[in-house]
Amino acid sequence: MDEPDSARTFLGLPEEESTFEAARVLILPVPWDGTASWRPGARFGPEAILQASRQVETWDEELGLSVEGLGFHLLPEVSPLGAGADAMVERIHAAAASVLERAGDRFLLVLGGEHSLSAGIVRAFAARRPGLSVLHVDAHADLRDAYEGTRNSHACACRRIRDHVGRTVSVGVRSLSRDEARRIEEERIPVFYAHDIAGRTDWIGSVVDRLAEEVYVTIDLDALDPSVMPAVGTPEPGGLGWRDLLALLRETARRRTIVGADLVELAPIPGLAAPEFLAARLAVKVVAYAREEEIRAAGPGRCGGRPSSDTPAKAG
């Protein structure tokens, strides 16, 4: 039996609503985890998120709007075949640069894959947006210059990102080396450690204060506590909660312009669907926050409005 038109679209939307021409959001999958140092499997993350997205409602109950009218176009995945770390970062840079050349003001969301890929994506954005800053949400500082023989390891993601942008702010960090701690102090890199922000909300404004007007968001899912997100390659106890992360993203979108984002390091656990669904839901939340004004401005037509009474609910 042939798959329905919605089987290979994000959120299970009809194909006619998911073309490149119709969509305001572009989804780029990158199934690669070549430098995984503990639990491999992030290469399966993009497909798991895509499949789980078909169970995510397009109505956002927090914002009171629907993302469905934005349109989500699923781009061809960036092939990992035959690529080592250096080659893969160059490959994703070339792919992201090509997409941005054609994208206009569309929103690009990249689904990883491992975190080393983010440097190539940020490089493509930074070439088009001087003054870009990066919100780096992660359990790890990722500031090593090299790790296990490569400068493009997942453990070097923020260091490589900083090669291309002048301003990064890291949130949720709770694992780093002595050399990374020294670098943070010497270079005065803004880092909001998990133990400092636990149980508080006043830190969120301070994070946003340190970001430039245009922000690229990179989210390593291990920033979340393992009780919330166990399906990552390098889990660390004491992480962010779901509501903590959403509050940070919403305030960032309210006070700054989020121009693009990536969601990385989901390593699916067979038989455990919750992490995959969380990642898919988070992908939709990032887009909803970033494009809230656009959806509201469009009104109850192309990009939003109240949910229709005849819109079928997801399975549940």
Give a brief outline of the structure.
It is built from 10 helices and 10 strands.
Tell me about this structure:
The chain is of the alpha/beta class. It has a single domain (26-298), classed as Ureohydrolase domain (Arginase, Chain A). It has helices at residues 45-53, 85-103, 118-128, 157-161, 178-187, 194-197, 203-209, 242-255, 274-290, 292-298, and strands spanning 25-30, 59-60, 65-66, 72-74, 107-112, 133-137, 167-173, 191-193, 214-220, 257-264. An 8-stranded parallel sheet has the order 4-1-5-10-9-6-7-8, with helices on both faces. A two-stranded antiparallel sheet has the order 2-3. Helix 5 (178-187) links the parallel strand 7 and strand 8. The chain is globular and about 50 Å long. The model is unreliable at 1-6 and 304-312 (pLDDT under 50).
How many DSSP H or I helices?
Answer: 10
CATH-defined topology: Arginase, Chain A
- What is the helix fraction of residues, given as a range? 25-40%
State the end-to-end CA separation.
24 Å
Residue-averaged pLDDT: 91
User: What are the secondary-structure elements, in order, as H or E?
Assistant: EHEEEHEHEHEHEHHEHEHH
Structure class: alpha/beta
Query: What is the CATH architecture descriptor?
Result: 3-Layer(aba) Sandwich
| Shape summary | globular
Low-confidence stretches: 1-6, 304-312
Q: How many strands, what sense, and barrel or not for the largest sheet? A: 8 strands, parallel
Strand order of the largest sheet: 4-1-5-10-9-6-7-8
CATH class: Alpha Beta
* Total discrete domains: 1
Number of strand elements:
10
CATH superfamily: Ureohydrolase domain
| Radius of gyration from CA coordinates | 18 Å
